[in-house]
Amino acid sequence: MRKEGLEPSCLAALEPKSSASTNSATFAKKRVKNNVLYLRVSVGHYENFPVASLLLPAPLREPVAVIYRFARSADDVADEGNDPPEVRLTKLARYRAQVTAIILGAEQQERLFQDVARIIREHNLPPNLFIDLVDAFTQDVTKSRYADYAQVLDYCRRSANPVGRLLLHLFKRTSETQFRQSDAICTALQLINFWQDIAIDYAKNRIYLPLEEMARYGVSERDVAEQRCDDPWRRLMALQIQRSRALLLSGAPLGRSLPGRPGLEIRATVQGGLRILEKIESVGYDVFRRRPVLRWFDWPLLIARAL
């Protein structure tokens, strides 16, 4: 699954995994330290958006941490280690079964699922959103190519959007407009992570670029394998960047509809996504050799833009 996400609507970024790349390995340790959370939205590629945490209201940091633990641990089952696919699928099926048991009111024996059951009860969270996350992680084990853009969006609907919706439920901001805007932000950030990590994903035999669009622009899997950055590649990537930017901007009003620190966090996260898109364009879409990431010196600019 992807390692960056946008939360407090997706809106707190998770850290990348140690396998993500040598550039991001130093960020790989999972942590909930000094109440500073890095919550990913896809729960895979999260290093782009390390804004969440202290901006979150103190009473919400613990339930957000539980959501993070659930998503990250399930994502690790799908993505980490050397288990064969059938073992990964068995373990993920157990996650789904535990959430189903929570829905049915069964008592939980393990700490993680006890905590999930508690925050679902205390904050009236929709448990099906946890199942959606497990379904996306399961898909990471079984599916490595996407025929068209609609299939990619369907993956994002389950891998990224549930975290944003869970956070909106924590914030007690649950209008259809706010859900729609959160979905747009979370999906956009998931897409941005895909475009940022094309080489990393291909090394895992995954391509998230829609195959139909690759064929239309004359880009083959061999081109990806050879890291060819020619005119057809740039045209294909320009489409992805343009579409992701439009989606991100369509959800941006959510950051102004939420008060105080949650609103600021969302606005900063949106600016983080836009900044990565700028960086991809600035290197001529050559994400193979110049993978864009946010550096410490980017954050003052992002915060200034978010105010």
How would you describe the overall organization of this protein?
- Helix 1 (58-79) packs across helix 3 (111-123), helix 1 (58-79) runs parallel beside helix 4 (128-142) and helix 1 (58-79) runs antiparallel to helix 6 (161-171).
- Strand 1 (32-33) and strand 2 form a beta hairpin.
- This protein has a two-stranded antiparallel ribbon with strand order 1-2.
- By secondary structure, it is mostly helical.
- It has helices at 58-79, 85-103, 111-123, 128-142, 149-159, 161-171, 176-196, 198-203, 211-217, 221-225, 231-251, 254-257, 260-282, 299-306, and strands at residues 32-33, 36-37.
> Major beta sheet, specifics?
2 strands, antiparallel
Strand order of the largest sheet: 1-2
Number of strands: 2
Helical proportion, percent range: 55-70%
DSSP summary: helix tally: 14
Report strand %.
under 5%
Written as H for each helix and E for each strand, in order along the chain, the element string is EEHHHHHHHHHHHHHH
Secondary-structure-derived class: mainly alpha
- Report the principal-axis shape: globular
Distance N terminus to C terminus?
Answer: 31 Å
Mean pLDDT: 83
Radius of gyration: 18 Å
Question: What layout of secondary structure does this protein have?
Answer:
Layout: E1 32-33, E2 36-37, H1 58-79, H2 85-103, H3 111-123, H4 128-142, H5 149-159, H6 161-171, H7 176-196, H8 198-203, H9 211-217, H10 221-225, H11 231-251, H12 254-257, H13 260-282, H14 299-306
Antiparallel strand pairs: 1-2
Helix pairs in contact: 1-3, 1-4, 1-6, 2-4, 4-5, 4-6, 5-7, 6-7, 7-11, 7-13, 11-13, 13-14
